[in-house]
Write a structure and sequence with these properties.
The protein is an all-beta fold and 637 residues long. The two termini are 52 Å apart. Strand 33 and strand 34 form a beta hairpin. It is globular and about 85 Å long. Helices cover 2% and strands 42% of the residues.
Length: 637
C-alpha cells in the first residue's frame, strides 16, 4: 500500500505523521444499480411495511414506460390520528428484514424514481401532501443501526410535481456522499408523517423504475487528520437527525426542587463550547417529574417532547462569542413542545462567555435565579398554578442537541454537573475513565457520541467520507522497519461528513515518533478455528493452541473468520460460508452468513474415526477458502 499524503502535525506531544493508505477505501463504480422495475410484481421478499398502515401492492395497469407487459408498485395509506406515520422499505438483503448486505451509496450520484399521483383515489390534494407533514421522505437504513427505525438517514424530501397527477414524472434525489451511514445502506425507505389536521385522508400513488445512477468518476479519497483529545464529558452530535438529543440522565429520581427545605441548585460547567461557534447548537438541562408523566420512561432521549410536564433550560448562541440561557416550562402537553417556545418561556439571560459554570437556583417552589459564567443573572417567578405538576420524584437530563444539519458532528465538553439542596446531592467532574453508570444512564439517538474522554486520551483520529465502513486505523513508529499495526480503537463515531476514533495512550506504541494511517485490510482467505484454538494474526498459521480432543458423532462449535494475507481479521465481510470435509460423513447444519467477518457454526460433528480437516468456502466467492488444523477423531466413549 502506498502512502498518498503525509502532513506532519505540529504541537503534539510526540512527533506524529498521518497517512492515507489507498487500499480500496474509495472504489470506482461504473454500473447503475437497478433496484426495482416491478415488471412482474412487487418482490415481497424485499418490500415490507415497517410502520403504520401504509401498503405496497402491484398494479399491472400502470407502467412508467407504457409497457403493457410490465407494471408498477402502488403505495396507499390512510391518515389515522393514532397512526399518522407510515414507513415502507425495500431491503437490499435476501429478505425484507435482512441487515446483512449493505449497498455503498457513495458510488452513486443520485436515486431515480418515477412517480405518478393517483388523483382519483387520493382524498388528500397533492398540494396539501406537498405543503404539510414530511412530504415524501426518502431515506436509507444504515447497517450499524441494527434495525433501529429511529436511526434512518435522510437523502431528502420529495415534492411531487403537479403534473404527476396526470402522467409519470421522473424524480432525481441527489446523494450526499458525506452523510453518516451512507456507505452502509441496507434498505431504501419511504417515510411520511402527517399532522393531526390531515387525518381522515387517503393517499395513493405509483412508483416505478427505481435506480441508483452511478458516478462517472470514483469519489475522492478520504482525508485524515489528528486533533488533541480533551478529557471530560464529550457530547457529540453523532446521530443522523438535526433534533437528536445526546444526553445523560440521573439514575435516581430524588432531584426535584419541590418541597426542599432550602435552595436547590442545578449547575453545568462548560469546558469547551462547539468549535466554530454555537450556531444554534445547544446544551440543555431537563427536569422531569416521574409520576404519571413519562410514557417512555426516565431514559427517553426525547423526554422534553414526550413528557407531559418538563422544565427545559437551554444554553445556546450564535456565531460569535458568548451564549444565552433560556428557561422554559411545559405543562399538560405530552408529545409536543409549542408551550416551551411561547408563553412557557419565562426568562432569558445573556453571557459574554460560554465557558464556565451556569447555575439555575430554585430559591423556593416558584422563585428562580439564573447565574451565568459571565457574571450576569436574572430572577423570575414560575406561576403558582404550574408548579403543582412538579411535586414528587424527578429525574434530570443533561445533554446537547445540534438543531441544524449543519451542526452534525459538532460537540461540547462538560467538566462538571452539580445538583445541590436535594436529599442525595450529585457532583460529577467526569474525571474517570468512563461514565459513572451508578449515577448516570445514556439517553441518546446515538449513544456512541456520549462518552467520558479519560485522562489518558491522546488524540482524535478523523477521516472524511466517503470511505469504506470497515476502514481501520493503524500505527507504526518507523517507516523503514516493521509494519503497520492495527490499533484497538473501537468503533468509529459519526461526525456528519466524517468519522473519528479515540486514541488513548494504552493502545498507542510507546515511542517518541508516531505515524498513523487509515487503511483497509483486503479479504483474501478464511481462517477456520476449532475448539481449543484462538486467532493469532501475523503468525505463520494465523492460529495458536491445540484442537480439543474430538469424538465421533459428538457435536462441537466451529468459527470461521475472514482474514487478509497475514491472517488479520477483515471487518465488514458478509459472505455466506459453507463447509466440507475429507470425512464423507461430516455433518453441519445450514450455510451461515458472516456478521462483520465472522461465521459461527454450532453443532458440527464427524461421522468417522480418523484424522480429518474441515474446509470453509465462501458461497459468494469460491476462491476464498480456508482449511482447519488436522484433527484426530476418536471413538465414541
Amino acid at each position: 500500500m502506498k502512502p498518498m499524503q503525509m502532513p506532519v502535525l505540529r504541537g503534539l506531544s510526540r512527533a506524529a505523521a498521518v497517512f492515507f493508505l489507498a487500499a480500496g477505501l474509495a472504489r470506482a463504480q461504473n454500473t447503475n444499480y437497478v433496484i426495482d422495475t416491478f415488471d412482474t410484481g412487487v418482490p415481497s421478499q424485499w418490500w415490507a411495511t415497517w410502520w403504520g398502515n401504509g401498503a405496497i401492492t402491484w398494479d399491472s395497469t400502470q407502467d412508467a414506460n407504457g409497457d403493457p407487459n410490465s407494471g408498477s408498485a402502488y403505495i396507499t395509506a390512510n391518515t389515522i390520528d393514532s397512526q399518522n406515520t407510515y414507513v415502507i422499505a425495500r431491503s437490499f438483503g435476501g429478505w425484507a428484514w435482512d441487515n446483512g448486505k449493505p449497498v455503498n451509496f457513495t458510488l452513486f450520484t443520485n436515486l431515480q424514481i418515477w412517480i405518478k399521483w393517483d388523483s382519483d383515489n387520493s382524498s388528500m390534494p397533492l398540494s396539501v401532501f406537498n405543503s404539510s407533514g414530511d412530504r415524501l421522505g426518502v431515506m436509507i437504513h444504515p447497517q450499524s443501526a441494527n434495525w433501529d427505525g429511529g436511526r434512518l438517514v435522510s437523502l431528502g424530501t420529495v415534492t411531487i410535481p403537479e403534473e404527476a397527477s396526470n402522467r409519470w414524472v421522473r424524480i432525481n434525489v441527489p446523494i450526499n456522499p458525506q452523510l453518516a451511514g451512507i456507505e452502509e445502506a441496507t434498505a431504501l425507505v419511504f417515510k411520511r408523517w402527517d399532522p393531526s389536521e390531515n387525518t381522515g385522508h387517503t393517499i395513493a400513488f405509483w412508483i416505478d423504475n427505481i435506480e441508483l445512477q452511478a458516478a462517472v468518476a470514483p469519489p475522492p479519497p478520504p482525508t485524515v487528520s489528528v486533533v488533541p483529545a480533551e478529557p471530560g464529558l464529550n457530547l457529540i452530535a453523532s446521530g443522523a437527525g438535526q433534533y437528536q438529543r445526546q444526553s445523560i440522565y440521573t439514575r435516581g429520581d430524588t432531584y426535584g426542587w419541590m418541597g426542599a427545605p432550602g435552595p436547590v441548585t442545578y449547575s453545568v460547567t462548560i469546558k469547551r463550547p462547539p468549535v466554530g461557534g454555537w450556531n444554534g447548537f445547544q446544551v440543555h438541562m431537563f427536569i422531569a417529574p416521574t409520576q404519571d408523566n413519562l410514557p417512555w420512561g426516565t431514559g427517553d432521549s426525547a423526554i422534553d417532547w414526550n413528557a407531559t410536564n418538563i422544565v427545559f433550560v437551554q444554553i445556546s448562541g450564535g456565531a460569535g462569542p458568548g451564549a444565552t440561557a433560556r428557561f422554559m416550562v411545559k405543562t399538560n402537553q405530552g408529545s409536543g413542545n409549542s408551550m416551551l417556545w411561547s408563553y412557557g418561556t419565562l426568562a432569558t439571560v445573556d453571557s459574554d462567555v460560554s465557558e464556565g459554570t451556569w447555575q439555575v437556583v430554585f430559591n423556593n417552589s416558584t422563585d428562580v435565579t439564573i447565574l451565568t459564567p459571565g457574571g450576569t443573572s436574572t430572577n423570575f417567578t414560575i406561576p403558582a398554578e404550574w408548579v403543582q405538576y412538579f411535586n414528587g420524584p424527578a429525574v434530570v437530563h443533561v445533554g446537547a442537541q445540534p438543531n441544524s444539519f449543519d451542526n452534525l458532528g459538532k460537540s461540547v465538553i462538560l467538566s462538571r454537573v452539580q445538583i445541590t439542596g436535594v436529599p442525595t446531592p450529585l457532583d460529577d467532574s467526569f474525571s474517570g475513565n468512563s461514565l459513572n453508570t451508578d449515577l448516570w444512564g445514556i439517553a441518546a439517538e446515538n449513544p456512541a457520541g456520549v462518552l467520558v474522554v479519560p485522562p489518558n486520551a491522546r488524540y482524535w483520529f478523523r477521516w472524511t467520507l466517503p470511505a469504506d465502513s470497515d476502514a481501520i486505523v493503524m500505527a507504526r513508529t518507523n517507516l523503514t522497519q516493521g509494519g503497520w499495526t492495527e490499533l484497538a480503537a473501537g468503533a468509529p463515531i459519526n461526525l456528519g461528513g466524517a468519522r473519528q476514533v479515540l486514541l488513548t495512550s494504552d493502545i498507542l506504541p510507546n515511542s517518541s515518533t508516531l505515524f498513523l494511517a487509515l487503511g483497509k485490510r483486503v479479504f483474501t482467505k478464511l481462517l477456520v478455528l476449532l475448539p481449543g484454538e484462538t486467532a493469532a494474526p501475523g503468525t505463520p498459521t494465523g492460529r495458536s493452541g491445540t484442537p480439543d480432543p474430538v469424538m465421533v458423532w459428538t457435536p462441537f462449535d466451529l468459527t470461521v473468520i475472514a482474514v487478509d494475507e497475514n491472517w488479520y481479521p477483515v471487518r465488514g465481510v458478509n459472505h455466506v460460508i459453507t463447509l466440507s470435509s475429507d470425512d464423507m460423513a461430516f455433518t453441519f447444519g445450514n450455510d451461515v452468513q458472516m456478521v462483520n467477518g465472522v461465521a459461527n457454526f454450532p453443532g458440527v460433528y464427524f461421522g468417522n474415526e480418523g484424522t480429518f480437516t474441515i474446509t470453509a468456502t465462501s458461497v459468494d466467492d469460491p476462491t476464498k477458502t480456508g482449511t482447519s488444523t488436522p484433527v484426530r477423531v476418536g471413538p465414541l466413549q
